[in-house]
Design brief:
The structure is a homodimer of 278-residue chains. By secondary structure, chain A is α/β, with parallel strands linked by helices. Chain A folds into 3 domains: 2-87 and 175-183, Periplasmic binding protein-like II (D-Maltodextrin-Binding Protein, domain 2); 90-166, D-Maltodextrin-Binding Protein, domain 2 (3-Layer(aba) Sandwich); 193-274, Alpha-Beta Plaits (2-Layer Sandwich), CATH 3.30.70. Helices cover 29% and strands 35% of the residues of chain A. Chain A has 9 helices and 15 strands. In chain A, the strands form 3 sheets. In chain A, strands 1, 2, 3, 4, 5 and 11 form a 6-stranded mixed β-sheet that branches. In chain A, strands 8-7-9-6-10 form a 5-stranded mixed β-sheet. A 4-stranded antiparallel β-sheet of chain A has the order 13-14-12-15. In chain A, α8 packs antiparallel against α9. Chain A is globular and about 65 Å long. In chain A, 46% of the residues are buried. At the A-B interface, β8, α8 and β13 of A face β8, α8 and β13 of B.
């Protein structure tokens, strides 16, 4: 049986994304939760997992930087699919008769509900946990004087016997998270693909980034995402991540990549995959 | 007396950056810690503070997204200075005779010490607090069974009577954080300035970003930083933040900005300021 890894424990948005994604795939896999993003990539690298699902970008909070920083280190593994999940956050409590003194969740949901929290709970303490499910687990076991509210998917209420105080509390109702599936075998072109590429530019930042982007523009290849991450060696030196339309085996894109290679100090195609839609 | 706000409580890297910055400025101000980045910007907007200092980018972890998302909302306030602080993290405990079971800090220091923690404390639980000083404050008051290690600036050890277990534990020894000072009066050119500009491109992402960058390139204006943030309305729509050399009152830069305006759907210069050096 193949093992498919996600950021656990059970009840995280990663698990829900994986289960929803697998419904439309004809594969026989067992799903396994790992305690952190680092442990998830380690399970893939050490071949304990044949594939993993990771959150890469949220429409409100942006890149999940821990994940993005792992992508450049992919070793004989490839982004092979993308999946977009609509996110609805709920405020849940153990006992709805008491007033909330503290709120706990992963930092991304807290950021995604910032205005709601400022308006409705301006004076409560905000606490960060490593995942929404770990926050729920903490509150379930907690027996002290504080009264915790948990922010997360409604399935956590069922799992832990919590009451839902308020539904869909995210500030933007267009809140979606994009996930990547990473596995061992690169995909074949479907005619409706995207590719993710990472590169660093030559020294003179201004001209060199424009030079790279101009190569894509000259062949009318649309970019659907661009972000930068520090190289971690010196302030002001960046790696650029772009998603573009096309498959790396397509003639036009592979031609562009050859031209781009001459204008970058580093370039790697992290995978091509069928467009997942919003 | 003018009030200068920072992300408190006392002992955060923000307070150390502010104190170090003020040593070279001939101003008479009182420094005041605020509990969160949101409260800090609110204190500036409501004129309770005349200026604030905020961390904007770390050389290892990248943009401080909460801060960057506030910059676009600056209202009659401007980035007026930058300051770069070298960051050294330390592992501190209350009682060095006991083995650490848990580590607590802000998520950025934990991310900046990831490899150190994996090598030396692979099995301890990692916990996030809203600031390094708030983590120290929590541990100082804690009386349970867990043994917490705190990651932060060495001044916290003195303030809370902690022992320093290990010094300079950050994975990259080139770890620096860049701060912005935001206040009410735009600066005059010094001849050695940088400017921060935010814009969104026209619909077709590929061509339009290249078109904007080409305007800077054509006048040989160097870009020292570029990053993207979601517009928060829809996945795949971004605001771009760039830092470039020059002052917005300089003839060349103001000419370029006029040309760029025609190629963007939104553009705003957030301020010009003397280069702070690495």
């Amino acid at each position: 049986m193949n093992l498919f890894g996600f950021l656990g424990p059970k009840g995280t948005f990663s698990e829900i994304a994986l289960k929803t994604y697998l419904k439309n795939e004809d594969v026989d896999v067992e799903c396994m939760g790992y305690a952190s993003i680092d442990k998830l990539f380690l399970a893939l690298d050490s071949k304990r997992c044949s594939a993993i699902i990771v959150p890469v970008e949220n429409s409100v909070e942006g890149s999940v930087t821990t994940v993005v920083d792992h992508l450049i280190k992919l070793n004989d593994t490839f982004i092979t699919a993308e999946f977009v999940l609509k996110i609805e956050h709920n405020l849940m409590v153990k006992d709805e008769s008491k007033s909330i003194t503290d709120i706990i969740s992963h930092y991304q949901p807290i950021a995604q509900c910032r205005h709601y929290l400022e308006s409705n709970y301006p004076d409560v303490d905000l606490n960060n946990a490593e995942s929404t499910a770990k926050a729920a687990d903490f509150v379930s076991d907690y027996n002290g004087d504080k009264v915790y509210g948990v922010i997360g998917h409604e399935s956590l209420a069922k799992r832990y016997g919590f009451n839902i105080m308020d539904r869909n509390i995210n500030d933007s109702k267009e809140n979606v998270t994009r996930f990547f599936i990473i596995s061992r075998k690169p995909t074949e072109p479907t005619g409706n693909d995207k590719s993710t590429i990472v590169f660093s530019t030559m020294k003179d930042q201004s001209g060199s980034l424009a030079n790279v982007l101009n190569e894509f523009q000259s062949k009318s290849i649309n970019l659907t995402h661009i972000s930068s991450r520090p190289t971690k060696t010196s302030l002001g030196e960046y790696l650029f991540y772009i998603d573009c339309e096309g498959h790396f085996q397509d003639e036009i894109l592979s031609e562009v990549l050859k031209l781009v290679e001459k204008k970058t100090s580093y370039i790697k195609c992290l995978g091509s995959y069928k467009k997942g839609g919003k």
